[in-house]
Predict the 3D structure of the following.
Amino acid sequence: MSPATATASRASILQRPAPTGSFVGTGALLRLALRRDRVRIPVWVVLSALMTVAVAQSWDRLYPTEESRRALAATLSGDPTLSSILGPLLDPLSTGGLTAWRIGSGSLLVLGLVASFLVVRHSRTDEAEGRGELVLAAPVGRAAPLAAALLCAAVLLGSFAVLTAVLLSSLGLGVAGSVAFAFTQSLAAMVSATIAGVTAQLARSSRGANGLAGLAIGAAFVITSSGNAQAGGSPLQWATPYGWAQQTRAYADERWWLLGLSAAVAAVLAAVALHVAVRRDLADGLLAQRRGSDGAASWITGPVALAWWLDRTYLAVWAIGFAVLGAFEGSLLTTSVDLVAKNPSLAEVITTLAGGTTNLRDAFLVTMTGLFGLVAAGYGVSTALRLRSEEVDGRAEMVLSSARSRTAWLAGHGSTALVGSTLLLVVGGLALGLVSGVSSGDALAQGWRAMVATLLTAPPLWLLITVVLALVGVRPRWAAPVGWAVLVWCVLTGYFGAILGLPEWVTQTSPFGHVPLWPAQPMRWLPVLVLTAVAGALLAVGVLGVRRRDLPE
Amino acid sequence: MSDSTPVIDVRGLVKTFGATSALDGLDLTVELGGIHGFLGPNGAGKTTTLRILLGMLRADGGEARLLGGDPWRDGVALHRRLAYVPGEVALWPSLTGGETIDVLGRLRGGLDPVRRAHLLEAFALEPTTKVAAYSKGNRQKVALVAALAADVELYIFDEPTDGLDPLMSEVFRDAVDDLRSKGRTVLLSSHVLAEVDAVCDRVTIIRSGRTIETGSLEDMRHLQRATVIVETEHELHGLEDIAGLYDVSYVGRTLRCSVEPSALNDLVMHLSAAGIRTFESRTPTLEEMFLRYYDAPTP
């Protein structure tokens, strides 16, 4: 089939007549979905709501006076990364406003991704794994599985909204503002969920659907953030539902109509997804299935080469993300240095925060590079855990029954995780430095400097990955839950430790709490060496573990 | 390895998973050359045995030798000399069928491109399709082509024709016959008794983690009760004096019963006294033998 006719036949799916009774069985499938997620949904709802409440409670305790509030606002707004991601801070004296501003973007991103993955899991994943066939063979309409998945996400987000609004109001933050904030978050996250509903119609695999949804959500965040980064605002701040969430102005003269706009976009996306769902064939996707090679490239001879071949697209997408993130941070670095240099009191606050350096550029640099390590850990942990899914799904058996050792098997996705995540740091750091150096004319020197600074976050990143590898060796069932929990802990302590007023010994439990802040501070080799040694020991535990245990277990 | 050493030699194998006992003193001997059937109901321990033989699981007790080596310690070296197709074939969805066959072949140490091409054609497999788009049967064929294209001493198949249509099962049987004529050894775990009956030289039957019968199919048949149907001229008498008759029904001078081999002579004497009009005797099918083993109470 030629490409042109292939495209025509893909598009003609949309012209098929809609069947009758498409929604029959939605209620039963929704109950099934809620039953399957009876632990997951309450955990996410309660955790997200409590996180918001914890942040809201901390302000009065940590910053009781008006003076301390204004100083805090100046510091936070002075951080270029934070202020571009979080949007404009309207009133530092309003506890509600401060809470909505500080936690809004992060919790929206997390809620949006959780809701998206939930929609894909109950629609495309069921279909790709064959359960969908069993369901559709019953008197169930073709739209019912997707409708139930979207409603399941709505239940999660609705419960979050109600619980959060009640809790924030009970803290005395103002009912109108609390309701506006909680429901804005839910509706914007519902847009993410309906995006996933659409990508689940495009891709045939759940991995593909999740990846496309994640890309779309990430792109929307980048667009909003670059709008926020421009002095005096920009139309880009109004381009996406995530920008609308910030522009709703919860706790400060709310723009209620923006809630309606998010709801309308979610409804349109849901309608588009359902329109495709009832017309396409079972297990089909709108993206055409490509044919591939009839033989494998000659260099794929062992588990390591195979893992790199399998992970290449995933790594490439992350690398592009890091290049974009690095370039974005690099452009922020230049503008913020110029901006803050004109404001001596703010400059003093920033340099004090960064450990007393007199160089503003270095002070900003270390606040940015810390982010790369945590984000790369998301890639590293998810890639290392592919070892576990290879084992559980039975593919490890195909490799281990061949003439390749267990160590080589571990080295497969173990190396794509460890080396791949380090490559991400190189890409992100280089992009940051190169872009920030363009205006000053020393791009190469700045690129090198930023890359080295970013690579200092590699040892804690390796430690996180080798925790997963060690567990794959000795407690395989714990690898996924513990691996993700450790990552979440590092994010919490790294990004919310200060605003939650966590004591230093708590934030120091995160390996990322020990990264030397070079070049803002003098280089300290001890933590680098200790973290690397611990990672090496954990790797050895993993290797010895997989050589000894039953595999598959 | 000398010709007298068995290819697979398993004695008193024990394996438990938590409180569940999977293998409870299992024995299995596979001699060099020919097709050895490995039979047992679901959950009998067939896959666990195969995984121990492949060094994926470690036995809790007993001894397992494969191609003269220790499967746990020498796994990698031994795997160069064998090819395996698991019961549930899981493959990488983003690779094509052809890529998968090459990868699996190279992991084992290479495969014969001529045989690869021949098998792709015989199994009517399209190598440029992504594994994600294959049916269960086609994924099974990918794993079979990868294994059969390898030139090794031992082939281990776990439920290989599960998911294949009768035509493709026939292609598989031809390929196995081919291996036998080349003097290779095949261990075939299967539920399809007709298939085992058709291709296997010897079988081992297990239940609840123990071996309950092993030997050549011919010997096993001869040790089994035969079904006899006779029509006699005159009334038969004294049947109850013969030890070793079972399931006896005698209606209108037609006798149906199962006979122990030791009782056959006595029965024929009685029958000839009554005058035989028609006589039909047949050895049991594997299916009948199998059902008889599993209807018996647990040993």
Q: What stands out?
A: Confidence is low (pLDDT under 50) at residues 1-6 of chain A.
